[in-house]
Amino acid sequence: MGAPLHTRRTALRGGLAAILASGVAPAYARNAFDAEVIVVGAGLAGLETALRLKEAGRSVHVVEANVRQGGRLRTAYTLPGTPNLGGVQIGPGYARLLARAAAVGVELAPEPVAPRNSRLFLGARALDGASWRTDPANPFPEAFKGLTPAAALFMLAQAEGANPLATLDDWRGPAGIAADISAAEFLGRAGFTADAQRLVDVGLNGNSLGTYSMLNLWRTQRLYEQERALGGSLVVPGGTQRLTDAMSARLQRPTHVRFPVASITSDDSGVTVRSLQGVSYRGQVCVAALPFPALRRIEVTAPLSDITREAIASLPYTQILQVIIEPQVRFWETDGMPIDMWSDGLLERAFSVRQPDGADTGLIMVWLNGGGVGPLDRAAFDWDSDSSSTALGDAIGRELARLRPASEGRVRVRAVQRWTASNSRAGGAYMHWAPGQVARWAGRMGAPADRLVFAGEHLGLVHTGMEAAMESAERAVAAVQERLARRS
Ligand SMILES: Cc1cc2nc3c(=O)[nH]c(=O)nc-3n(C[C@H](O)[C@H](O)[C@H](O)COP(=O)(O)OP(=O)(O)OC[C@H]3O[C@@H](n4cnc5c(N)ncnc54)[C@H](O)[C@@H]3O)c2cc1C
Fold first, then answer.
1. Which of 247, 430, 463, 471 to mutate to test ligand 1, by most ligand atoms within 8 A of the CB atom?
2. Residue 336 CB contacts under 8 Å (≥ 6 apart), including other chains
3. Given this structure, which CATH class describes domain 2-72+241-315+441-487?
4. What distance in Å separates the CA atoms of residue 277 and residue 67, rounded to the nearest whole number?
5. Nearest atom (ligand 1) to Cα of 472
6. Ligand 1, closest atom to CA 261?
7. Does ligand 1 come within 6 angstroms of the Cβ of 89?
8. Which one, of 59, 420, 350, lies nearest residue 207 by Cα?
9. What CATH number has the domain spanning 147-228?
10. What is the tens place of the pLDDT at every residue in 222-262?
11. Domain boundaries in the chain?
C-alpha cells in the first residue's frame, strides 16, 4: 500500500514543482490528503496510536525511518535465548499494554526468576559480596559498606522515610519540586565521598549522578510499590519485539519503512511530512511519536510552545551501549566464578544471556551506561562493518582478559546496539529528568501544537518505559480526535 501512495505523491510533487517554487500551492494539491492522520515513528507509541485510530474508524498512515518496526523494542531473534536489546520487563500494572497484547494475540509469561550470582571487580581484583563489605578499598560510609555499588542508590532511596513522594502524582507537584535534588547531592548528604560516588555512577540508570534527579527514582519506586500488589513482572516469551511485530501486522496499511522524516510542516489546512529523499505524505493531523533527540533532527514548522522547543532541544536520555559477545573459551568453567560481573573498568557490567529455563547460552551481554559508553561508542564508526566489529571485539577481549585471564581475550561480537547519541533514531535508551526540569517541563512539554500532536515514552505522566508510551498514545488519540472533529 505504501508504494502507490508514494508514487502518487512523487508524481504530484514533480508536476507541481514550478508552482511550489513560487510558494503558491493550489488548494487541491494542499488538501490531497493521503490519510486523515500521518503517524511518524513505528515504535510502541506510534503503533498504538495508529491502531487506536484505526479502531475509531480513522484513516492512518505510519512512516518509519528504519527497515525494522518496533523502535526501542528490539529482539535479536537469531541468537540463542533471543535476547532483548530494548525493553523487557512488563509491570503487572501496565494495563494498556496487557490489553493490547491480548488483542493482538501475544501471550505474556512471568519473568523467569532464576537467581543471578555475580562478581565485583575493582581494578582487576574480583570480590564477592562478603569480601566487598570488608575490603579496605570499599569507600562507602561505614553504615552502608554492605551495599553493593550496583544497588546502593536504589536501596538508600527506598530506605524508611527517604522517599518524599506520597502519591503517584506527587513527583510533579509541590512535594516533588521541593525535593528535586541530584543523586550526587542525595548521596553526598548520606556521606558518600567522590570516590564512593564514582562507583555508584557505573550502573546508574542515567548519565551521571550530578545530572540525574532523584525524582526519577522516587517516582518509579512509588509505582513499583503499587505494582507489587498486583504480582510479578511479565515478559513476552520469544522476545518483546513480538508485540510490536503483531501490532504492525494489524495496521490498516503497511508502514512505509525506510522513510526517514526530514521535515514536518503544519499549515492552516493540513500537515506535510517529508522524507530525506523528498517523498511526502499529507494528512489533516500528524502524530510525532519520536524520542525528542530524534525530533531534534527534524525541521518542524508548527506553533510549538517555548517549553516544548526547550525540551525537544535538551531533554536528557540515558546513554546505553549493549554488545553481545560470544567468548571462544568458556572461561567461567575454568576460573570458577559466575559469568555475571560488575567492574569499575571499561566493561562496566556483563550478564549471561540465558534460555527461558535459566540455562546459559554461552553468550554474554556487555552493558555500558552513561559516560561509560564513550570509549566504545564512536558516532562516525560503522559498527556493522566487519573490521569495526573485529576492532570492538578486540577491545572487549583485551579488557575481559585483564579481568578474567582464563578468557584468553578471545571473543566474537554477535550484536551491537547503540542506544546512544550516535543513534540518530533514538538518541538514548529512555528519558530521565535532570534536576530543575520537572518544575518547568513536566506535563507541559509536548502539548499539541495545532495540527501536530506528540506521543512517546517521554510523555508518560504516571508510568515510565513501555506503559508510558501506551499512556501517551491514549492521550495523543484524544487530541487527534478533537482536532479532526473540530475540522469536520
Ligand atoms: C535497553 C532498554 C531497556 C529497556 N527496558 C525496559 C523495560 O524493562 N520495561 C519498560 O517498560 N521499558 C523499557 N525500556 C523502554 C521502552 O523500550 C521504551 O519506553 C519504548 O519502547 C519506547 O517506545 P516509543 O514508541 O516511545 O519510542 P521508540 O520505540 O523509540 O519509537 C520511535 C520510532 O521512531 C522512529 N524514528 C526516529 N526518527 C525518525 C525519523 N526521522 N523518521 C521516521 N521515523 C523515525 C524510530 O526508528 C522508532 O521506530 C527499555 C529501553 C531500552 C533501550
1. 430
2. none
3. alpha beta
4. 15
5. 26
6. 42
7. yes
8. 420
9. 1.10.405
10. 999 999 999 999 999 999 999 999 999 999 999 999 999 99
11. 2-72+241-315+441-487, 147-228
